[in-house]
Design a protein that fits this description.
The chain has about 260 residues and is of the alpha+beta class. The chain folds into two domains: about 120 residues, 2,3-Dihydroxybiphenyl 1,2-Dioxygenase, domain 1 (Roll); about 120 residues, 2,3-Dihydroxybiphenyl 1,2-Dioxygenase, domain 1 (Roll). Helix content is about 20%, strand content about 35%. The protein contains five helices and 16 strands. The chain has an eight-stranded mixed β-sheet with strand order 2-3-4-1-5-8-7-6. Strands 9, 10, 11, 12, 13, 14, 15 and 16 form an eight-stranded mixed β-sheet that branches. It is globular, with a radius of gyration of 18 Å.
Amino acid sequence: MERADAGAVTRPSWVSAFLDLAPAAWECGIAFWAQASGTSLSPLRGDDREFGSLLPASGDDHLRVQRLAEGESRVHLDLHVDDPVAAADAAVALGAQVVHRSEHGYVVLDSPGGLPFCFDAHRAEVRSRPVTWPGGHTSLVDQVCLDIGPDRFEDEVSFWTGLTGWERGTSAVSGSFVPLVRPTGQPLRFLLQRTDDPRPRTGAHLDLATTDRAAETERHVALGAVVVASYPLWTVLRDPAGLAYCLTDRDPETGVLPSPPAP
């Protein structure tokens, strides 16, 4: 299949992120992320009530939760398309591997670097608004960062640009970051990060944009998160389920960093 043909069926109309929670972290993970993101848990679904959505006060959901049968907590992506089966076949032509074809219509795959993702046909279209917190600052879960080992970085960048049809951008922060240009209306940005350490599989973590990183950090720590490291433009934390994530100085409305002050 030609690359252009693949993009036509794999280009998502919506993107959502799944928090795959280890069995022991199911309840604390849901409680933390509902409070951290200002959302509420939907009724659970699935044969074992293992799936749920975190519903925002406005717009359609783009955060979901899954209770794993085993293993450690992680993050995976859902790409919403018209025909998950055709999209999966096209993704294989780009280098993905099919892991599972569900009788419910969705298809589970791994990227060339081993990041789990799914195609499903669920429709959504209204991006949620940033949440305003006491004190007046705002925040929004609006980005998934793919953590990629140096030996797989260019292959993963090529795969995700081809799969989504999103243009490769340029980071003003570091050459180790490659942002994909988010189409208007999409709830999540993609940022691909080249890590210093080789790793057996590509991973992913969530990023929040906020207008006051210090206040947002304090709020998250009060909810049970632990600060791991702090940098000029972002802070790394770990949630009670064991997942690392970042709070960033990006604008929650636009998703981009504020312009530096004029000299």
